[in-house]
């Protein structure tokens, strides 16, 4: 019969999607734009407030004058969805790194056969890390309008929230692809 590929396709898919998910989730976690507030009462019409899980920034759209480290006068950081995101997003990032190290050990392209149980276990870790970042992202999105904001402002999801959501989904898909390695163990 024809020679088989050294590294199964599912493992390659997992090893491509998960680092991409890690980069998106890392960017979403660190950047201060989970939510944008614009058109606030008694404020210039071009002022946009950006709220992240670590920082608050304001930017004048006309002059691109951006100031971060704004005071949290409304108690935004004390809100439960923000606190949960502050705990789960870094935990997810650490777990993703751990899962990628284990996945690399399991896939090991330089040896004759990949270690399917190790790659499958890495898939479970990466699946869990994706879920850990998806939970706060979805909860924050659900509570987007309920979190404190300056009066009369128009609320919109920020790019950090979108990147975190996409990163979580890529990690989940990559983790699922790697867990398919268990199928090979069961066949033996």
Automatic annotation (TrEMBL):
GO cellular component terms, semicolon-separated: bicellular tight junction; plasma membrane
UniProt keyword annotations, A-Z: Cell junction, Cell membrane, Membrane, Tight junction, Transmembrane, Transmembrane helix
Membrane topology value: Multi-pass membrane protein
Subcellular location: Cell junction, Tight junction; Cell membrane
Domain of life: Eukaryota
Gene3D superfamilies: 1.20.140.150
Transmembrane segments: 12-31, 87-107, 119-142, 162-182
Any GO MF annotation of the entry: structural molecule activity
Family statement: Belongs to the claudin family.
Protein name as catalogued: CLD23 protein
Gene this chain is encoded by: Cldn23
